[in-house]
Amino acid sequence: MYKKIIYTTMLMLLSLPVFPFSFGKLEKSAVAIYEDINPAIVTVDSQLSDGLSCGTGCIIDKSGVILTSAHVIDVGNAVVVTTNNGQNYDAKVLKRLGENKDIALLKIDAKRDFKTVKLGNSEKIKVGEKVLAIGNPFGFSGTLTQGIISRIDYAKNRIQTDAAINPGSSGGPLLNTKGEIIGINQAIYNPDNNISNIGIGFATPINLVKEYLKDFEKG
After folding, report:
1. Mind listing the pLDDT tens digit for each residue in 112-138?
2. What is the dihedral of CA 195, 197, 200, 204, to 10 degrees?
3. What domain range is 82 assigned to?
4. By Cβ atoms counted within 10 A, which residue in 89, 119, 168, 181 is the most buried?
């Protein structure tokens, strides 16, 4: 059987204009999580010779350090980050780590502190746990979706989810119901060559990312 995994970066040849429910005591509503986290989520555009590679990023340091997927900016030249309030910044690529890890760090500079995300613990996640995803699918910035953890692939370091992620969502956060990032959205399953979501998406576990961040801080 033909199988294919497609990364959820969106390749744009033409520029695009770009219900609360009950939770447990320590959990937050989807509305509260979105309002708290979305200001720290950005759009990442990497210029190609024939268009744009578009993805999502998470601000992890108030100085403007951004976590995203490496394949979003892997083949790009100029990288532009658009923040939640619509401001554009030229971004510097600090470091990237491809292959299965597929993570990268960017830096933007501004005369202000940025809102940041909180990193969780992916070792504590369970199949069936509710999760949320925020990203920029097909250029629709700040899109929130929800679902569950469908499977945990320990061998390949992947979290599988049915929360809808699509091209443009790469680098965006997979969140638990405390508003903590447990994974970085990376790819969707694509058995029939259709680039749209069919309910099988994958994220890089955040603990793997945190190990990478330790190495970056040392280096």
Report:
1. 999 999 999 999 999 999 999 999 999
2. 80
3. 33-116
4. 168
